[in-house]
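Q: Two folds, back to back.
A: First:
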Amino acid sequence: MPEPRQPARASSTTPVRLAIAGLGPAGVGLALRAVERGWDVTCHDPAIADGDVLPPWPATYGAVDPDIPPWAAEFFDSPAPLTVIAETRRELGFRYRMLNKEALRNAFRRANIPVRRSPAPASSRTSVTVTCSGAPRTDAALWQIAAGVVVSLSDATSHPTPEPIFMDWRGRADHHPPSFLYVQRVDDGWLFEETILAAHCLADASEQQRLVDMLRARLAERLDSSEVRALGPWIQLRTEAVSIPMGTRRGTLPDFFGAAGGLIHPATGYSLGASLTGADDVLDMIERTHGTSGHGRREGLICANRLCARTNRWLAYVLRQVGGELIARADQETLRSFFECFFRLPAPVQLAYLTGHDGVAVAKAMWQLRAHTGFRHEFLRPLWTQPWPVARAVWKRMRARR
């Protein structure tokens, strides 16, 4: 049974006129929540497909179960246990869910929200525009690059069923940039994907294609292993290639949202859970900005709370940037050792870092990690031996806008 739909937060008596630019999953989620409030919503995207109201979504999306708000649960498949393999194999203390893209797209279609195949207009006195058009694809970004294949496996009961794998770091030590294997069930089969978690890479398409080709070769080695061959015969259904710019943003909340607002975690590549979780908060911010709430004697307290929340978001953003930079500077053996330490942490501490919403919680998670890594771990070495290059790279990325 799907969970009952979570009601939208109470809105003001004067509905906001909202234009949303960009109709990926983040923009669609924001539009649905705004409509629930009774707002006047219009959506814009120049890439809308012929005969549809949405652009294609070729990528595969997932999120850790605790990061999915109740109202969005119906758009995800059932939670599945997760395994990680670094120096040892372990099952994580939380579950993972794949986005059912058609369920979310159909919910948007049923909402009958006006759609324009065009860029969005600028904000005005009578309307607000939120940009959800993705992160800037610049040389300053960290890049997550992945190459995958979706296969249909034999239904014979004599063959074992694959287990969902969050990360398998058993790649060869000479792999550079380092990569891991990701395995998840999808609508039409199983996705096996070799992923570079974070790398310094040019935005040039030919350079990224070189990395995709390299990952395809590594993935072929994985699929030829005895562990995968034991799953029985399989048929390749389709391939997938992903390049995600991380750590850059077009602007700040609430005018920019999703990846455009910096919600991609540069140490994981995830943004969907953060976007869906943060949709109502962003709408609250828009409502306050337009003078529809927060009046009277409580205004001082409300302003103080806003400042604290903004500072906490900024702290989380900076700490995520530092983590992503350290990952991009590490080799295969270093990351295997680091993630062995990381996944020894209690599940709530892991989640605090993987979701990355709360700056204080992220800082606590990083501090607790030192009990397993110490201060001399190779992963942390750039902080002590190259502090200024690390800081310059982070600063340049945070200021990259396009």
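A: Second:
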Amino acid sequence: VRAGAERLDNTAENAQYIRVAEAIAHPRYSFRTVYNDIAILKLANSFKWTTTVKPICLMSKPVNEIQMSENISLIVTGWGATDVGGESSNTLLRTPSL
């Protein structure tokens, strides 16, 4: 796993690399449609927290039990395609705050 860099094709950035000890794919992942394209990666070591490598918070409750307020914003990021059969990007993509 590479963390701390926005461009996949730039090896000069201050990225950190950690080996994956185990990968657990979503049980309903479909290679054909790319639906449920998410996995949990267990890392062999921990990352060093820096200005570009920080932890994220994961929800511990089902989404229908979360009380959202107007003051909460969400940001979606990724390198993947935004549609089945769509092109992917070497640059980290971000959507506006949701």
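Q: And?
A: Residues 9 and 81 are 17 Å apart (CA to CA).
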